[in-house]
Amino acid sequence: MFKKSGHAEIIRSHQKDEFYIGYLKSQITDISQALLGPRNWIKWRKELDLFADLGYFTLTTFAGFQTIGEEYVNIIQVDNTLRALPSRFRRIFLILIHVLTPYTLHKVIDWFEKWLKSPVRHDEIPAETKHFLLKCVPVIRQTVTFLHRCHLALFYFQGVFYHIAKRFAGVNYVKYSLHKQQTGPNVLTQSFKILGVLSFAQLVGSIGIHAYNAYINKDKIVKSFRRETTPELDDSEVSSPALKCALCLEKRQSTTSTPCGHLFCWNCIHEWCQNKPECPLCREKLQPQSLVFLHNFDPPG
């Protein structure tokens, strides 16, 4: 018989899917590094991860089959009526939102930040506005993270939509079981609701701390807007090999040192260490926690 899925089944399904998607991504990483080289892998790693996500959900959700995680806990996707399977259009809409929206948002924010930091002068943008927009970029990233945490806390209360994409697409879950379901108070559901209360309390506390810090530092922020822009590097300095990351071949951003002394972008070397715990240049073994971020090392740009 069918019944509405509980919190535990949906979470376990998500964890199992994440495990197999991670395995698929690691296999694609090994193949791409062997065929394209580490530099090209660093350049296209986000697109390769996108390809892995699209491939996994195309072969399962789009084709009308359960994902490995859904099959593991014996749950089935249904529409808002809880009586019919999602239509093909609804499944396509779900996959596009779930996979493409985070990728597109990440790309747009990164492009906007790089555009503001580019050595080309933006004469149409006042210096104060440019500084303000640069300070808004991390706020936007934090807001996205906050929305995800808020949605997760809401899931702990309702037990319906674990992913934001499923909420927009109207895709629910029902559980199939051969055993007769017993009615009565569900202790596990109450436990998840308590977890939801704690999650919301943590979110409110985080917002309060950020608001307090912003209020305390408002004078410093105003002064920083009024400062004159620092001199920019000329083309010869930007193109200097000493300022380039050996992985992405671009000017280093957030310079980070390995224990062996080689310098890379923080994002580049951190992504590399997640897959291969060794220096890309000398192959000396290293762990992500041994990376040293060099504060105030990058020249003004």
The gist of it:
This protein has 301 residues and is mainly α. It is built from ten helices and six strands.
Helix and strand arrangement:
Layout: E1 2-4, H1 7-36, H2 38-62, H3 68-73, E2 75-78, H4 88-117, H5 127-158, H6 164-169, E3 172-176, H7 187-216, H8 218-226, H9 235-238, E4 255-257, E5 263-265, H10 266-275, E6 292-293
Antiparallel strand pairs: 1-3, 2-3, 4-5, 4-6
Subcellular location: Peroxisome membrane
Catalytic activity: S-ubiquitinyl-[E2 ubiquitin-conjugating enzyme]-L-cysteine + [acceptor protein]-L-lysine = [E2 ubiquitin-conjugating enzyme]-L-cysteine + N(6)-ubiquitinyl-[acceptor protein]-L-lysine
EC number: 2.3.2.27
Anisotropy-based shape: globular
Rg, Cα atoms, Å = 24 Å
How much is the average pLDDT?
82
Helix and strand pattern: EHHHEHHHEHHHEEHE
Number of domains: 2
Q: What structural class do helix, strand and pairing data support? A: mainly alpha
Side by side, the strands of the main sheet go: 1-3-2
List unreliable stretches of 5+ residues: 228-233
Q: Distance between termini?
A: 64 Å
Strand tally = 6
Determine the number of helices (DSSP H or I, runs of at least 4 residues): 10
Helix content: 55-70%
| % residues in beta strands | 5-15%
Instruction: Report on the biggest sheet.
Output: 3 strands, antiparallel
